[in-house]
Amino acid sequence: MAHAARSFIDTIEETFIAALLGLMTLLTFANVIARYVFNSNILWALELTVFMFAWLVLLGASYAVKKGAHLGVDAILNVVSPGLRRNLGIVAGVVCVAFAFLLLKGAWDYWANFANLPATEGRWFPTGFEEQFRGKGWYETNDIPVPAVLSFLEGMFNDGDEYEKLPRLIPYFVLPFSMALFLLRSVQALVAIVTGKIDMLIVSHEVEDDVEDAAERLAAELKER
């Protein structure tokens, strides 16, 4: 059951990330055709592509932590004893969790006012929420039109006034959401080290594996000849 749940969540994340990449490619291609074939322009295409790229990168970063796909240097870890490797892994995990926590605080503080919510106080650790702040729910993107299905946001964040463009709270939401996922994945990796499931933050050897696979296929083809 747990494996099925994890697989389902993986499918959602992978599908969403792949959809973002596909939509970016399609929108960019459509804009090129519009510009060079029809001498026109999709005005909002560039801004939307930039936002989708940001979503792709930030969500991909947390997913890479989950899959152990981030690159790293493991030259020292491979020559030390298993016990020391695990201890170094715990230290690295704690640092990653602290770093992810700081990113989450900064991400929330940046996004919160765009959603008419208070940012946190405190330079490093949140000591509370702002008592006085200027809501920025009326801030809009430059060119992206707002879909009619999101008209309910006007009463929630814009005092009932009509949005002319997509409110910035929508694309900027990826900041706290992705950093919360990043913190969750970092904590999960640290717990895996502490409980002995892994002995270090997994370093991606995807390129090395691809090279080895290619070498094996080439050797097999040469033998057949």
From the N-terminal CA to the C-terminal CA, the straight-line distance is 48 Å
Placed side by side, the strands forming the largest sheet appear as 1-2
Overall 3D form: flat
Q: Using the CA coordinates, give the radius of gyration.
A: 23 Å
Structure, described:
The protein is built from seven helices and two strands, in the order αααββαααα. α1 (2-36) runs antiparallel to α2 (45-67). Helices cover 61% and strands 2% of the residues. The chain is mainly α and 225 residues long. It is flat, with a radius of gyration of 23 Å. β1 (120-121) and β2 (128-129) form a beta hairpin. Strands 1-2 form a two-stranded antiparallel sheet. The longest helix has 35 residues, at 2-36. It has helices at 2-36, 45-67, 82-112, 153-157, 169-172, 174-194, 206-224; strands at residues 120-121, 128-129. The model has no long low-confidence stretch (mean pLDDT 84).
Short synopsis of the structure:
With 225 residues, this protein is mainly alpha-helical. 61% of the residues lie in helices and 2% in strands. It has a two-stranded antiparallel ribbon.
Helices and strands in order, then pairings?
Layout lengths: L1 H35 L8 H23 L14 H31 L7 E2 L6 E2 L23 H5 L11 H4 L1 H21 L11 H19 L1
